[in-house]
Amino acid sequence: MVVGESGLGKSTLVNSLFLTDLYPERHIPSAQEKISQTVKIDASTVEIEERGVKLRLTVVDTPGFGDSLNSVDCFKPIIQYVDDQFERYLNDESGLNRRHIIDNRVHCCFYFINPSGHGMRPLDIAFMRALHHKVNIVPVIAKADTLTKQEVVNLKKKIMDQIDEYGISIYPLPECDSDEDEDYREQCRLLKEAVPFAVVGCNTIIEVKGKKVRGRMYPWGVVEVENPEHCDFIKLRTMLITHMQDLQEVTQEVHYENFRAERLAVGGSSGVRKASRQRRIDSDDREQQLQQKEAELRRMQEMLTKMQAEMDAQKVQQQNGGVRSHNV
């Protein structure tokens, strides 16, 4: 999922990350349309291949976020979408065909922060606090080519200070195991230091010193998207690919379990009452069935006793008749 106000290059970055065009026919709203625009949920699915492995990727965009004059409730449709996917998964998990569940839960949310501000706005903070217990949030500084290197450093520090101040939980990159090789441990260290990732997105191919690269050309020079000295694009892409499994596991073991526990707590008391009532009904039914069987057994016992008495009476008669005949 990608979230952020319009004009921060969300779509461009997504297309740059996966070398595809997810939004070929997107309508760009005018300034007048943005005033009354509401947040929409736009999900696009594409199959990509990474190192010979095919991945089914669903990118959820949120056009209209933060664009209207009143943005107080603009993130509620996003929360509803995340909860709906959890609810759908919970229902599928409770069904019969559990082995073939399609997982549409949101495993990662790139939140784009405006580079022109002095840190995060109140809306940014409110959004993160509303969703940090539901999804893995990865903060991203958009359009980092508008900042100097020192400005990027200062903005990153300001954002991380605000995250700590307001108790926001962003996606925690896991610690490396002790048996990991030195190169991987160094990579993890660099990824952690890069948060929030300052990125530049572009699919334009330009030639620099006889070499074709993706980047933007300015009067003062060239910004190369995949140059670690220019931005954190490569680090963000590396984080997403190398930690994809961990993002899914955190979603399953933390965020989904929190949602599931809340659902069970809400429906728990009524569920207990319903189960108790059903047990009473079942108990009454069993008692009634036992009584019917006991009555039937008594009737059969009486019939057997009566039949036995009749048979005994017939034997006595036969014996008496035989004796009289002999005497005569």
UniProtKB/TrEMBL annotation:
GO molecular function: GTP binding
InterPro entries: G_SEPTIN_dom, P-loop_NTPase, Septin, Septin2
Chief location of this protein within or outside the cell: membrane
Aminoacyl-tRNA synthetase as UniProt keyword: no
Cellular compartments annotated: Cell projection, Cilium membrane; Cleavage furrow; Cytoplasm, Cytoskeleton, Spindle; Midbody
Transmembrane residue ranges: none
GO biological process, one term: cell division
GO cellular component annotations of the record: ciliary membrane; cleavage furrow; cytoplasm; midbody; spindle
Coiled-coil regions listed: 283-317
Keyword entries, A-Z: Cell cycle, Cell division, Cell membrane, Cell projection, Coiled coil, Cytoplasm, Cytoskeleton, GTP-binding, Membrane, Mitosis, Nucleotide-binding
Domain Septin-type G: 1-266
Keyword RNA-binding: no
Domain of life: Eukaryota
Family recorded in the similarity comment: Belongs to the TRAFAC class TrmE-Era-EngA-EngB-Septin-like GTPase superfamily. Septin GTPase family.
Protein name: Septin-type G domain-containing protein
Organism: Sinanodonta woodiana
Taxonomy of the source species: Eukaryota, Metazoa, Spiralia, Lophotrochozoa, Mollusca
